[in-house]
Design brief:
It is a single chain. The protein has two domains: 222 residues, Rossmann fold (3-Layer(aba) Sandwich), CATH 3.40.50; 167 residues, Rossmann fold. The chain is globular, with a radius of gyration of 22 Å. Helix 2 links the parallel strand 2 and strand 3. About 1% of the residues have low confidence. It has 15 helices and 13 strands. The protein starts with a strand and ends with a helix. It is of the alpha/beta class. Keywords: Transferase. GO terms for molecular function: GDP-Man:Man(3)GlcNAc(2)-PP-Dol alpha-1,2-mannosyltransferase activity. One of its GO terms (cellular component) is membrane.
Amino acid sequence: MKKRLLLFSEEFGPGGGGYGVSAHVLQTLSRHYDVTLMCYTPPDCEAVDRWFDTELTECKWRYEGPTIAERLLVRSIPDTSRFQHVNVMLKRARELSEEFDVAFACCSLEADLGRPAIQYIHYPYMGHSDWRNQVPGSAPWPKLAAAVLRGRTPKWAALSRYSFDRMRRNLTLSNSKWTAGKIRELFDMPSQVLYPPGTGSLSPIPWNQRRNGFVAIGRMEGSKRMDWMIEMMALVRAKVPDVELHICAHQDMARPAEGIAHRVAELARAAGPWVQMHYNLPRGELAGLLAVNRFGLHAKIDEHFGMAPAEMARTGCLPFVHDSGGQVEIVDGDPRLCYSSTEDAVAKIVTLIGDARLQDELRGKVARIAGNFSPESFAAGLLNHVETFLALGPEGHLKEHLR
């Protein structure tokens, strides 16, 4: 009989890299365990499969969602950061977790599941707040109510009875060495790196037949700096006239009414046909675009990991990344593929485009490390962590965790 596993995730959908990790977690665990998925809305498995190249429609698992009362409660408290609905569901997860052999959380917030569990952290967002230094959500009700009224505890913490101390007892997995360092810095707790699964496979098109094109993939938001990409690549094009830039974004994340989407579209139109905007590309078309171009470009500063440059590396592209965050691990920290400023990016890109031997050297280096970001590597590491956790049991885990 399969072990019972409770999988907690805030939401599933096509789009960001965090959703992709959740999709692969569900796919992998449901093939080996009796999984109950708890999240705010049931996933559209067909859409997720198309976007992340998963097979959720062929997997078996149960769904546990919020009650009508819980949905009404979430709506009663204005929230722009999803804290309310995540924590209402965390409260339910704690109530049910003892019915399972193991609980696993994969969401945007650090998870208190009421017992030692496994959590995958993309970034320790809650560690940057003063909440953990205020009255905890696990405090006695009279003290907690007074703290909420005085603004010393957020409403979501009171709703879920959240405890940072319980959260710190989890087995924590992180998406990069950089994120692991942030977790240690903010919570003084260990975590083990399990790189996310990048989709794609090595392009069959010979390198000398691929274009001097750059592909950028990501959400249409200011932190992705797609406007900067166009302006920087215009400087490159002044020296390398055949260079192209392809910016790929999911349609739901690129609403023209938003300022950054409008600015990027205007810059692309002004630049001319060498800048191409692609919205809502099916997985096959995105893979085809990566296959015919040589380079990738990622511009977010302090990116926690970077599923987009990982996918670029998996298809044989050479990704240029900002010299910060966890994304530098995708190129093994090679300074020739990491830039710190506009001038630095232009100089390094122009140098690489003009040096075939350097391209061959870096292609070999990126290819060797790209295997760390494969779905197969992720699944194997994930199963190993879950199996080890189950073998140790909660008490055994705590002895290992706290020593």
